[in-house]
Design goal:
about 350 residues; alpha/beta; Rossmann fold; 2 domains; seven-stranded mixed β-sheet; four-stranded parallel β-sheet; 12 helices; 13 strands; about 40% helix; about 20% strand; elongated; binds 6-O-phosphono-beta-D-fructofuranose
Length: about 350
């Protein structure tokens, strides 16, 4: 069998671990050959391929990013895109495709599967917002990076008696903010699922100072104020899947807090630092197992499925289950964290 592989959407630590595991098992156990498509769906759309064998995957397990490159190309937004993908797969003799991505990349995979393309999905995203799986790889690494940042910010915030607002990624889901905020002992956590009341935030800031501690606020880039408006939009620019580019909530929140409370407030935007560098041990473990199971699903002809972590087991769920609705933070999980607010 010849198997194509691509990585799409925002990159994250662990992509190379999936690629390595799928190639190693596919070649060694099943005698499959692989074709790498560059930059997500752009690869099969524009017939941009690379050799992908055991030599190419040697040494990449701990490396961040993706040797295949990534993009946010949407073949359904391109005239004749689906046919061009079919033609490329046929030209390279690919019987199947492993697509590694988040809601957009796997959303495309799901639609292609419905159209008869033999595709298997592997869920990745630092945002951890894909349904059907307990965790996506990349998330644990991002949470560790954010937690280390929060730990460091506590000490400098205390020295200067100032508020520090830490902006983390999370467009629609506050998983990174919630987990790193809990792990780092944040005093306020603001997430997209729970529009925040700026008066309440300021009251919590003041009560924190009253006990002689400096507040740390962790805010997801997609968090919004309850009174409406959108503090976080930096530009109206949209990607091929219609997402606006976010960022800026941290700065706006800090200046609003400073203005209302008279306390000095600064913002730190972690940005792409959360997506770069070497994957954590957990992410290497999860990504490797996803890769091993994905190539087995291909070998068994179980197409239209996505690998999923359920407890400690790797399961297969329909691609549509992973992509139709986003997995957002439940109220009860957020409320657990509220005990530490203020
Ligand atoms: O999709 C994951 C994500 O990390 C989002 O949280 C964030 O909004 C987005 O990627 C930003 O990605 P980029 O700057 O690469 O477009």
């Amino acid at each position: 069998m010849r198997v194509g592989m691509l990585t799409g959407g925002g990159d994250c630590p662990g992509l190379n671990a999936v690629i390595r595991a799928a190639v190693r098992k596919g070649v060694q156990q099943y005698g499959h050959e692989f074709v790498g498509f560059r930059d997500g769906w752009r690869g099969p759309l524009e017939d941009d391929v690379m050799t992908l064998g055991v030599d190419e995957v040697r040494g990449i397990l701990p490396r961040g990013g993706t040797i295949l490159g990534s993009s946010r190309t949407n073949p359904f937004a391109v005239e004749g895109g689906v046919q061009r993908i079919r033609d490329t797969l046929e030209r390279h003799g690919c019987d199947a495709l492993i697509a590694i991505g988040g809601e957009d990349t796997l959303g495309v995979a799901s639609r292609l599967a419905d159209l008869g393309v033999q595709v298997v999905g592997v869920p990745k995203t630092i945002d951890n917002d894909l349904s059907g799986t307990d965790f996506t790889f990349g998330f644990d690494t991002a949470v560790n990076i954010a937690t280390e940042a929060i730990d460091r910010l506590h000490t400098t915030a205390e020295s200067h008696h100032r508020v520090l607002v830490v902006e983390v990624m999370g467009r629609h889901a506050g998983w990174i903010a919630l987990h790193s905020g809990l792990a780092g002992g944040a005093n306020i956590i603001l997430i997209p699922e729970r529009p925040f009341d700026i008066d309440r935030v300021c009251a919590q800031v003041e009560s924190r100072f009253a006990t002689h501690y400096a507040p740390i606020i962790v805010v997801s880039e997609g968090a919004v104020p309850a009174e409406g408006g959108d503090m976080s939009l930096v530009s109206g620019e949209k990607d091929a899947f219609g997402h606006v580019r976010l960022g800026g909530i941290g700065d706006r929140l800090a200046s609003e807090i400073e203005h209302r409370t008279g306390k000095e407030a600064r913002a730190v935007v972690l940005g792409h630092v959360q997506r770069g560098g070497s994957p954590s041990a957990f992410d290497r473990w999860l990504a490797t197992r996803f890769g091993l199971h994905a190539v087995t699903a291909v070998h068994e002809g179980d197409f239209g499925t996505m690998m999923a972590l359920r407890g400690t087991e790797i399961a297969r769920v329909p691609l549509s289950e992973g992509t139709e609705t986003l997995k957002t933070v439940r109220d009860d999980l957020y409320e657990e964290a509220e005990v530490f607010f203020g």
